[in-house]
Amino acid sequence: MNIFSKVTIQSLKKNRARTIVTIIGIILSTALICAVTTSIASVQRYAVNYFEYTEGKWHGYEKSSDIGVYNKIKNSDKVSGAGCLSYIGYADIDSENEYKPYLYICGFEENMDGLIPVHIITGRMPENRNEILIPEHLDDNGGVNYNVGDKITLEIGDRKADPDKIAEIGISTGDKDSEYFEHNILTQQNPMTAVGSNDNIVLTAEYIDVRETREFTVVGKYMRPDFEDYFAPGYTALTVPDDVDDFTAADVFYRMKKAKDIYDFKEENGLGGRTHSEVLLLTGVSRYDSFYSFILGMAAVIIGLIMFGSIMLIYNAFAISVSERTKQFGLLSSIGATKKQLRKMVRFEALTLGIIGIPLGIIVGIVGMWITFLAIGSKFTIFSDYNYAEPMRVRVSVVAIVAACIIAFVTIMISAWIPSKRATRISAVEAIRQNSDIKQKKYIRTPKIITQIFGLPGMLAHKYFKRSKKKYRATIISLFMSIVLFVSAYAFTAYLVGAVSDTYETFGMDYSYYVYNNNDDVPEPEKINELIKNTEHITDSTYTVDDCACFAIERKNLRKEVIEKEYIYDDTDYIPVEPDKAYQYIGLSFVEDKKFRKFAEECKLDADEYMNLESPQGIVVDNSLDFNTETGKTERVRYFIKPDFDMTSRIYDDIEGYYFYQLDNGNAIYVKKYAEDINDNTTKKIPIDKCSREFTVHVGAITDKKPGFIESSMATVVYPYSALRAVFGKSADKIRDISFSINSDDIFGGYEALKTSLKENGYSTAELYNYADEVESKRNMVIIVKVFAYGFIILISLIAAANVFNTITTNINLRRRDFAMLKSVGMTTNGMRKMLNYECIMYGTKALVWGLPVSVLVTFFIYKAVNEGVDTDFYIPWAAVIVAVLSVFIVVFSTMMFSMSKIKKDNPIDALKNENL
Description:
Blueprint: H1 3-14, H2 16-55, E1 60-66, H3 67-74, E2 79-92, E3 102-110, E4 120-123, E5 131-135, H4 137-140, E6 151-161, H5 163-169, H6 175-183, E7 194-196, E8 202-204, E9 206-222, E10 234-239, E11 249-256, H7 262-268, E12 274-275, H8 277-282, H9 289-324, H10 326-334, H11 339-376, H12 398-423, H13 428-433, H14 448-467, H15 469-503, E13 511-515, H16 525-533, E14 538-554, H17 560-564, E15 581-591, H18 593-602, H19 607-610, E16 618-621, E17 624-628, E18 633-637, E19 645-652, E20 658-664, E21 667-672, E22 683-687, H20 688-691, E23 692-703, E24 716-720, H21 724-728, E25 738-744, H22 747-760, E26 768-769, H23 771-814, H24 816-824, H25 829-867, H26 878-903, H27 908-913
């Protein structure tokens, strides 16, 4: 250790308070960086474990394939593991679920544990072809209970559609259809061939072609498998595979030795199945560069904000150190120390403090995240519907720790580099005299308004501010950084939450219910709606009649980017093509009048004007997201420039036994229902004016607020229900399908109560969907992101406030001799207060003038990063700007008051004697 290092160590020891504060700053900064990197590693590992447990460890999945493909994949040197579920057959088990009446028996085989997600609840795996493993939901969902050890005899065969039963239901079939039905075997991908009658009785139209009878011994039960679709007609039971050939049907699962090879492997082998996109994305494999641009952009913003705040926090500590040691550097320089040696002293100080602070910061960060995940880790099980019981726990990753150390070290060295340059910039004489911070090249004039408001103290403060800018610069920079940090952090979280909310769209309903009517007995929607509203746990319900049509739209009403990106069509075979018009499918939603009135008021419109049935006007919800497979980006689409225009379309008449197909030279082509081919014998040509009528939709307003009663992702025109006939005329009688959007205070209790209520009143429950249950994990994802995001805002805000507090209090402490001098010449406490009030205003104003424009610029960069993944609009977070403006002055004034309370009892003589202030 050379003499300069020894001097640095001695200086650190003598200034213990400053040294401890600096080390604490390094510990906090490192801990924050470590917390971020450790959290990312922990969440990534947890997510991978979750998906591999619930869905399997496979990278590729070939559904409805065969054993030939399985053998080809299994024998590839690029594949580390493979498994399959080979087809054996179906057996009727008298299930209580009419749409799931079978046991689907398949042979289970895998050469890697966990490749296929089979989780045994009790018992064991089958060891021969006469042992069977059954799923738990066979009892819960199907009402068929088997226990371990039971002997069951099953008649196993193939599912086939029955043409005679199909004809009984009302669907005509030809000779070719009968031949097709006879030889085609239905699989798990084919839902039950059945329909619900008006008496809530399910009419089936298929049968089991029995091939064998086999006795099984139940050796275990397992959790409902992820690979069984909810619409599958059979409960999946597993046994040992039968003797198979290359043509035996099978579902194939496989895992690559190198995950990144999956897409090339599929292309080379002509495979078209699924990839385990969640696991691949989390392990760094994606087909879309935009995904990584989005992730890297977000990571860069987070790390950048942390480094930004950390550099200022640590920089201030080193700047204060250099300021205090200016005289020391001058003395060393006068006896021969070079600028390089002085810079090394500052860097050695940074290195010494880093060696102490970084390891402690890593420990604090890991312990902090360990405590955090210990407290809330179990909450993450809700994402698996409690099927994955493992709680989130901290994962100590070498990569995460190394990354945190490197980032923290770079942060410290950058923080020390600026003061080290300053330490060597002045001469030895200037350093010893310590007058380099005060420079006056010309006479300083004080504006009269300052003297009028603040008097002599204000004038002194102004002159002091102008003569010693360096002493004020640290405070202003600290405030500037705090403003940028807060506004940027708020913008980051706002854009991130918006992107997640858009991607995981949850709409605004808990249940949806659909009533389809094929006869003249059309129930009144108000009657059903009242029944729903009066059900226990139901808090709100509304009904809509929805339709969709291809509209002709004048190009002048469409946005330029919509035309350029070809989101519209130049022609169509649905309605006659006209010049200067474009075509697009637009939704129509006729909502309950009461709900429409509320929606119009939310859009700040006069509801009465839009409910005038003599000239009905619609409100277009023009804000949809569309995933572009070419760019890998979720793009936002808005079609229209401004309201007050018409769109036209046509309604075609129903012709018994036929359906409308397309237009051809002014004629409507109708095709015979269930026709195998479209030719002259199966079609009718009717002049368009003989079989259809034109209708017009007037767009009175445009909004991007999507109401909860709209499920469609397309642009939709909203009307009151009472305007249905005014828009469609007599054709309104054709539109009888009604949908209900329902909210509840108990998503499970309300669902069961609603099912019971509908059944008791003679309504089918086949089209009642527990939408909230399906999207609960998506809603929780949005909530979790909000919690972490706003926690990040609070943390960054606290760091910024602490930074400002530390800078201002240190600045005041260093000026104790100045204040003592002013006291000695007669300045009163009130005069001192006026001087500091002026300084507070100057601090706040200067910081805002620089901080707000930079904050807007950083917000723009955040917008660009988010926009790489999800198309969003640029906006400035004005709420954060207002909070930042108010907070700056509150923090500055309160800090000044605190600092002055500490030094107002100083003895002026003692303060003037002390050169270390």
